Amino acid sequence: MTDRGATIGTVRAARIAGPGREYLIDDEPVDIHIVDGLIADIAPTGALPVRGEVLDAGGTWAIPGLWDNHVHTVQWALTAERAPLGHVESAAAAAHAMSGVAPLPDGRRVGTGFRDALWPDRPTLELLDAATGPVPTYLINADVHSVWLNSAALAWEGFRSDDGMLRETDAFEISRRLNAVDAAHGDSAMRRAGEQAAARGVTGVVDFDMAWGAEAWPRRIRNGFASHRVEFAVYPFDLDRAITTGLRTGDVREEPEAPEAGRDLVHMGPLKVITDGSLGTRTAACSHPYPEDPGNLGVLTVPSDELVALLTRATGAGLAVAVHAIGDRAVTSALDAFTTTGAVGSIEHVQLVRHADLARFARLGVIASVQPQHALDDREMVDRLWNGQTAIGYPLASLRAAGAELRFGSDAPVAELNPWHAISAAVSRTDDDRAPWHPEERIAIDQALEASVRTSLRPGEPADIVLCGADPLTTDTETLRKMSVIATLLAGRCTHVDS
């Protein structure tokens, strides 16, 4: 039995199902030979002598390691310590649910995952105070763009709000404070979250945590984190610090005393800029107003001229950019800024896109970094809140047909960190017994896999390999969504083995 942490020299009798399959003449089992963390050779099973420790795939299906290209890592890791509120159906029910939540060691109650856009009643300060009393209580919206606090929490944090709701910049500040646990606590939570991700086939994430990752991630590696690769972002409030420190996208960030298993895992990522709000908070910047609120077109939290200035500075400093843009006005503003500055990078979310903007992604080389599960989680809100919009909602097939490069993620904790959910959602556009939502935007399974990986199974590529319990190219969407992962290899080292 192969143990987690073992360095594999040969994966025996695997069937290649993902990128790399096109180089083989049939689907018979092959042996994958690994040297120094790279795929050295692929040959029919038994054709070459095995080398090193052997992982017997037993005819299961191999794909390249999966990436989640949008994760708020610390917030995701801490979700397990917070009360889940995704099931509550009203403000009154949410307040009542929080009344029974035990405070954390620091004395604060924290819940997460509510969706007030679908509630029949409104969150109010009086309602939450009546249910929760003097204990500082925080409810984080599923989209993280708003938080609902009681009076005790508002006083603790030094904020004021007539209804207890804080939105956008103020909400992000509350999340930053809640996530600022001591390093030992946070790093322990990250190790558990990393192991969970590896069990789902994840070998890399793009981290959009708002903390200073240039310090946190080398420390975590030094203390034994080795579950997956990380590209960490910085935000505009840390841009001067990043430039002064000399951070450039793609640079390896580690320290000499890092364990061998953690070498070369952490890289500098992009500058992250949040340019509008979200659908659930009714702040995504759109061309048409939200229902029953004719003056509300959402908000451009970073005006176009400021966005151009930020992208110009980042590009001059060697940083790629990741621009959060959900509404169609924000997407257009982001594409305009890429055009003006020549910046490279991605637009994150891309949930509402004008028809004329589809082709601009490919023309500019801008990656559409999308979260397919959001389309399913948000379908009721979209039908209610964006029914007057004329742009395309949650496009996948339309973007790909226009030549755009897609990359998939979860936006965890907004959705669960599970790339199989993203893949299945993209292929089926449903996750329950309802008919597919806008099935014209479905894409093929091989296209969904391509958007979920960074490498290919062929010689010379990193030995980031996932062994799947079913053939992802032919299985049904329910099995795809619940895909069993037999083993995950990161540069040839086992980060997960099914027990």
Which regions contain 5 or more consecutive residues with pLDDT less than 50?
Answer: none
Number of strands: 23
Helix/strand class: alpha/beta
Mean model confidence by pLDDT: 96
β-strand percent reads 15-25%
Give the biggest sheet.
8 strands, mixed
Distance between the termini: 9 Å
Helical amount = 25-40%
* General form: globular
Q: How big is the Rg? A: 23 Å
Number of helices: 17
Task: Based on the model shown, name its key terms.
single chain; about 500 residues; alpha/beta; eight-stranded mixed beta sheet; eight-stranded parallel beta sheet; 17 helices; 23 strands; about 30% helix
Please explain how this structure is put together:
This protein has 499 residues and is of the alpha/beta class. It has 17 helices and 23 strands. Strands 1, 2, 3, 4, 5, 21, 22 and 23 form an eight-stranded mixed β-sheet that branches. Strands 6-12-13-14-15-16-18-20 form an eight-stranded parallel β-sheet. Strands 7-8-9-10-11 form a five-stranded mixed β-sheet, sandwiched between helices. Helix 2 packs parallel to helix 3. It is globular, with a radius of gyration of 23 Å. The mean pLDDT is 96.
Offer a quick outline of the entry.
With about 500 residues, this protein is an alpha/beta fold.
Could you give the topology of this structure?
Blueprint: E1 8-16, E2 30-35, E3 38-44, E4 53-56, E5 61-64, E6 66-71, H1 73-78, E7 83-84, H2 91-99, E8 109-114, H3 125-132, E9 137-141, E10 146-149, H4 151-157, E11 165-167, H5 169-179, H6 183-198, E12 202-207, H7 213-222, E13 229-234, H8 239-245, E14 266-274, H9 304-316, E15 321-325, H10 328-341, E16 345-349, E17 352-353, H11 358-364, E18 367-370, H12 372-377, H13 379-385, E19 392-393, H14 397-401, E20 406-408, H15 419-428, H16 445-450, E21 465-468, H17 477-481, E22 485-490, E23 493-497
Parallel strand pairs: 1-4, 1-5, 6-12, 7-8, 8-9, 12-13, 13-14, 14-15, 15-16, 16-18, 18-20
Antiparallel strand pairs: 1-2, 2-3, 5-21, 9-10, 10-11, 17-19, 21-22, 22-23
Helix pairs in contact: 2-3, 9-10
